[in-house]
Design brief:
The protein has 2 domains: 102 residues, Rieske Iron-sulfur Protein (3-layer Sandwich); 286 residues, no CATH class. Helix content is 19%, strand content 25%. Helix 5 packs antiparallel against helix 6.
Length: 434
């Protein structure tokens, strides 16, 4: 349980708020590279409570600037991309990617008025088919080159705008037990009502391993965030779910089997859920020329929240908590030790920034940032012949926080006779772990 003041401190991300100041020390994805092209060269963006316009000039340069022309406040998302930047549709003022006005075509010859006009602008970079921005003080840290973004392979990505605060999305990743109930139990119930028997059985087999009864959960703090571990069903600590686990990349990213899940704070009551997928190229498969990116709908044709794949079920759980979860009336149990730990980490890092330091998981050494290879259970890493790759023989240390659970749970009739399958990720086509 938190006080109202504590809840607001953790959830409010606008300019000048403690969490907003912390969030501005990180690079955030705001669009897919494929979304800015000749047909759609501009895009309105809202991030951390600020409205902006993203554009790609006709020379290919990216810019992210405040949305309104300084002249008569016309929205620059309707602007014309030119080699030097974006030209206002109203009176033709031209801005470069730094926000500097470089042309006012109707002002008197020799006028230097344009030199006095500059819009707010933020740096942007592209990596792995995504466009990122940094909104904090200079010098900016390096854009982290996480493995599935930096590796050669087959990639795609999609995003959905959610009507809820970023923190309830991210706390989900510090709650391993939710997989047993939200995905295996409720997800199975949902699939039983809406899908064919074959699709239902495939779902129950898919979620049966990670969603088995949880006996223990553990969290190990690292220099990039947290490694999450779980002991489920009849597994031992020698199995990948405990021995390897997978990480939370502080403060807003989950690295999991298929790739990365970014929970990007749009403002206090909206989040951009941006998901990447990665697999290695098959022998003879051509390299991609572009990473596909789509905006996925949140609701189905009946007006209900889509809930027939794992991230969509997560989204349901986050949204039904309300625009901002009321933590003043919550009751946390032993299963919530990871959430309590994460809130303390957020508070600690807000204080680090307030004291003038670099927060956790900011990168400034190019050598260390070349490719950040991360642990992930049942994963086939590029350059390795065995599942686990560089983490195949990993021996975890004692978790910083852990909890022993009952190992119990309800069952469903449709689970009868279904054998849980552990899938190997990072390669295609998918295969089971042996």
């Amino acid at each position: 349980m938190l006080t109202q003041e504590q809840n607001e401190r953790l959830t409010q991300v606008g300019p000048g708020t403690p969490m907003g100041v912390l969030m501005r020390r990180y690079w955030h994805p705001i669009a897919g590279s494929a979304q800015l092209n000749d047909d759609t060269p501009t895009r309105e963006v809202r991030l951390l409570g600020e409205d902006l316009v993203l554009f790609r000039s006709s020379a290919g340069k990216l810019g992210l600037i405040e949305p309104s022309c300084a002249h008569r406040k016309a929205n620059l998302s309707y602007g014309i991309p030119e080699p030097e930047g974006i030209r206002c549709p109203y009176h033709g003022w031209l801005y470069d990617e730094s926000g500097q006005c470089i042309d006012q075509p109707s002002e008197p010859e020799g006028s230097r008025f344009k030199e006095k006009v500059k819009l707010k602008a933020y740096p942007v970079e592209e990596l792995g088919g995504l466009i990122f921005t940094y909104m904090g003080p200079e010098p900016a840290p390096l854009l982290p080159r996480y493995d599935v973004l930096a590796w050669d392979g087959i990639k795609d990505a999609h995003s959905t705008v959610l009507p809820c605060n970023w923190l309830q999305c991210m706390e989900n990743s510090l709650d391993p037990l939710h997989f047993q109930w939200l995905h295996r139990y409720w997800g199975g119930w949902t699939m039983n009502r809406t899908k064919s028997a074959a699709e239902r059985d495939a779902w129950n087999a898919q979620v049966g391993a990670r969603g088995a009864e949880h006996r223990k959960i553990g969290f190990e703090m690292t220099d990039y965030g947290v490694i999450k571990r779980r002991l489920v069903g009849d597994e031992t600590e020698a199995d990948d779910h405990w021995r390897v686990g997978h990480p939370i990349l502080f403060p807003t990213i989950l690295r999991v089997s298929h790739g990365l899940e970014f929970r990007v704070p749009i403002d206090d009551t909206h989040t951009l859920h941006l998901i990447t997928n990665y697999r290695q190229r098959e022998k003879g498969e051509e390299a991609q020329t572009e990473v596909p990116f789509v905006d996925r709908p949140l609701y189905d044709e009946a007006g209900l929240l889509i809930r027939d794949y794992i991230p969509a079920q997560d989204q349901v759980a986050w949204i039904i908590q309300g625009p901002v979860s009321d933590r003043t009336t919550e009751r946390l149990g032993v299963t919530d030790v990871g959430i309590i730990m994460f809130r303390r980490m957020l508070e600690e890092q807000m204080n680090v920034v307030a004291d003038g330091g670099d927060p956790l998981n900011t990168h400034r050494d190019p050598a260390e940032n070349e490719t950040i290879v991360l642990p992930c259970e049942y994963y086939m890493y590029p350059g390795y012949d065995e599942v686990g790759g560089p983490f195949k023989d990993a021996v975890p240390r004692e978790p910083d926080v852990q909890a022993v659970l009952s190992g119990e749970g309800a069952t469903r009739d449709e689970w009868e006779g279904i054998e849980a399958r552990r899938r190997v990720w990072g390669i295609g086509p998918a295969r089971e772990y042996k």
